[in-house]
Structure formats: C-alpha cells, structure tokens
C-alpha cells in the first residue's frame, strides 16, 4: 500500500506556515539569537533558536496552561494546523482508523524544573497534580489524540534526536501494512531551559560561540557544537487509496525507511559509520531505487565534530562518486532534538515542491573530513527523491526517503 503526505503543521524558529518557511529558506534566514527565556549573564552558552513570537496566553486558557507543558502546547498547535491543512473533519476522525505517532526527545523539561523548585520551597507533597501528566513524554501524543479525537494507535517512539523520524517511519509501515488509514506523525521539543541548556553544556555538546552566524555551522571546519532549537512539526500520513477517495491534496510520498542501532556508545556514533551507512541503504532498498536516483540528502548535520565527520563518511560510502546535494537545516534553526527530523522533513518537502534546495547557511571553512557536495544557496533544483537522516544519542539511526508525487 502506498503512503502519501496530505498535510502538515509546524511551529519553528523559522516560521510556521508554508509561506513563511519557504521564504525563510529562500532568504537563507538564520533564526538563532541570544536566549531570552532566562538570564544568560553568567552562562557559557548564550545562543538558541527560540519561538520568538510565541505567546502561550494567546493560544490557551489559564486552565489549559495549568495542565500543558510547552512541549504539549507546541504539539497541539501543530496537530490542529496539520488537521486543517489536510482538510480532515471531526466526523472523519470519528469514523476512520486514525493514529497518532507523536513524540519528544526529552518531554516536559520545563515542568520538571518548575515543580522541583516548588517542592523545595513548599514540600514535595504539594506539587501540582498535573506534574506527572505534563512531564511524561507520551502525554505529547496523548494530548493530541484527545484534542483531535483520534482513536487509533497512539504511540511515542523515544530515540533521542531520531525520535520524530522514527515516528514517521513507523507510521509509514503501519499504514503500508494496513493497520491504520491515517496517522498524525511527528515530534515536539521545548528544551530551552536551565536544565536543557545546562545539561548539554556540561557534555560539551553545545556551541559556545557568541556570534549567531557562526554558532550552528554544520560540516564547517570551525564547528564546536550544536545550537538548541524548539518547536514542533507534524505530518499527516495517509494511504493513497484514502487520500484519493477524499480528494486530498497530496504533497509528497514516503517510499523508504531504514532503521538500526550502532550499539556502540551512549553518546558517540560508531567510528566506522557502518550502521548509519546501512540504515541509509535499508531505506534505499525499501524504496526500490538506486542511490543514484536520490537528488538531495537533508543530513542530520548537527555542527558537532563527530556527527558531521562520521555522517559525511556514511554519505560518501553510500553515494560513491555521485556527489549528491547535501545540506543541514540546523544551520538555519538549530537542533530541535526529538522534533528535528519531522521539521526538517517538512522543510525538504516544501523545497521539493517549490523546486529549490534547502540551504546550508553560514558555511565558510572546508573540512577535508566533511568533503560533500553542499547546497550553500537556496538554488533552483528539481528534487524527485530526497533522503532524510536522523542520528540520535544511543546510536539510533533512522532514515526516510520521500518522493515527489
């Protein structure tokens, strides 16, 4: 059974609508800036890609905010927009097999911080009764299912930075094999917090640059860590039969999915890049095409030393002498962790339909260990197939192949 994309919803540092995201890519916008969420005077890391214009009080009532962490809020808004974009009615939601595969890499981190402080001040017996439901990762998908009335499988695959890519891939398999007709698949992240930034800072994973145009610089020789982003993205996946029956607007097709694990180290990728290479190979085989038919790779491209070097090795080993076009959307909006795969897939789908390449911005210094054919401009280019890579802590490798419909 063929699986197509019939809508999307997004909240990203680059924008939320298709028009905003296309404009941001074409204009090669950088959404990274100084953190405004908390004081940064004494902090080593001072830059992030925030949702600058987001006002939760305009989006939700006070009663709703009491039970929703930001990670839940972002997912709910993205899902509502995806439902509207796909033109699925409430009646259809009730009478169809509709699943929700929406996840997060970390979940309600802001809630964990707030309630810990409340417990220290007042007593841990006086925490908010919503603490656990706001903090746990499955609530990201569960809140969406409740909100849109989806009664199919509601699953949250948690594989760190590969989470939403795995969610899309597993949703693709579920529809392909006849388990669901429609699935809302994606992820959300809200980790620009004291704990989120502090934790990755202590790992030496984040960029300490003070220059927003030289902080998230995937594959650049001077890269020194990733930049945290936030937001959510959701794709509406549907069987082709269902989409045609209801006259849906089809914006792409998923044709391949590859997944495996390095089983090497909890944070470092395997130095051989063997399993990242194999995951790409599995996706290509699943699609029934050859590597030469892939026009573009949206890389994981985190701007960390090991990821970029080893992902480059994997890409070169798959594509050989064919210098496939490569870029990383993290150069524009930082790393949305568990939400990165879906948001970067959305950007790539939009670019595919508008016939241009998502750009790798702020790249200046060539690294011989990252010797790829980078798309340094949002140049006109026809994409028939693109491959999306996501490589998560724990050795999680997930790859998707999308096709022009």
TrEMBL record:
Enzyme Commission number, as recorded: 2.3.1.179
Catalytic activity, reaction form: (9Z)-hexadecenoyl-[ACP] + malonyl-[ACP] + H(+) = 3-oxo-(11Z)-octadecenoyl-[ACP] + holo-[ACP] + CO2; a fatty acyl-[ACP] + malonyl-[ACP] + H(+) = a 3-oxoacyl-[ACP] + holo-[ACP] + CO2
Residue ranges of every copy of the Ketosynthase family 3 (KS3) domain listed in the record: 1-404
UniProt pathway annotation: Lipid metabolism; fatty acid biosynthesis
Official protein name in the record: 3-oxoacyl-[acyl-carrier-protein] synthase 2
The protein's enzyme class: transferase
Domain of life the protein comes from: Bacteria
Family of the protein in this entry: Belongs to the thiolase-like superfamily. Beta-ketoacyl-ACP synthases family.
Coiled-coil region list: 51-96
């Amino acid at each position: 059974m063929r699986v197509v994309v019939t809508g999307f919803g997004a909240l990203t540092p680059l924008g939320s609508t298709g028009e905003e995201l296309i404009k941001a890519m074409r204009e090669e916008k950088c959404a990274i800036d100084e953190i405004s969420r908390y004081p940064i005077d004494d902090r080593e890391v001072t830059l992030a890609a925030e949702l600058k214009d987001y006002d939760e009080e305009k989006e939700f009532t006070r009663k709703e905010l009491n039970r929703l962490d930001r990670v839940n809020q972002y997912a709910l808004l993205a899902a509502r927009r995806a439902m509207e974009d796909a033109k699925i009615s409430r009646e259809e939601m009730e009478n169809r097999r509709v699943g929700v595969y929406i996840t997060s890499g970390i979940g309600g981190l802001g809630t964990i911080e707030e309630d810990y402080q409340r417990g220290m001040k007042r007593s841990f017996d006086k925490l908010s009764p919503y603490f656990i439901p706001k903090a746990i990762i499955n609530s990201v998908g569960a809140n969406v299912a409740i909100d849109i009335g989806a009664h199919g499988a509601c699953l949250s695959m948690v594989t760190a930075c590969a989470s939403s890519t795995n969610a899309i891939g597993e949703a693709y398999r579920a529809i392909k094999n006849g388990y669901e007709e429609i699935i809302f698949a994606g992820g959300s992240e809200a980790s620009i917090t004291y704990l989120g930034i502090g934790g990755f800072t202590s790992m030496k994973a984040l960029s300490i640059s003070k220059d927003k145009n030289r902080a998230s610089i995937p594959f650049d020789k001077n890269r020194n860590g990733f930049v945290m982003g936030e937001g959510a993205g959701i794709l509406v996946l549907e069987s082709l039969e269902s989409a045609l029956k209801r006259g849906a607007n089809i914006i792409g097709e998923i044709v391949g999915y590859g997944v495996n694990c390095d089983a090497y180290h909890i944070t470092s990728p395997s130095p051989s890049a063997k399993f990242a290479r194999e995951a790409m190979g599995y996706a290509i085989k699943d699609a029934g095409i050859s590597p030469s038919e892939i026009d573009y790779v949206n890389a994981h491209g985190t701007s960390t030393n090991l990821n970029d070097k080893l992902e480059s090795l994997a890409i070169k080993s798959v594509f050989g002498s064919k210098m496939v076009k490569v870029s990383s959307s993290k150069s524009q909006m930082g790393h949305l962790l568990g939400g990165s795969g879906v948001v970067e897939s959305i950007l790539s789908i939009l670019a595919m339909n508008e016939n241009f390449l998502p750009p790798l911005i702020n790249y200046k210094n060539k690294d011989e260990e990252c010797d790829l054919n980078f798309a340094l401009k949002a140049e006109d280019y026809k994409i028939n197939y693109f491959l999306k890579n996501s490589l998560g802590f724990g050795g999680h490798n997930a790859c998707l192949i999308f096709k022009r419909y």
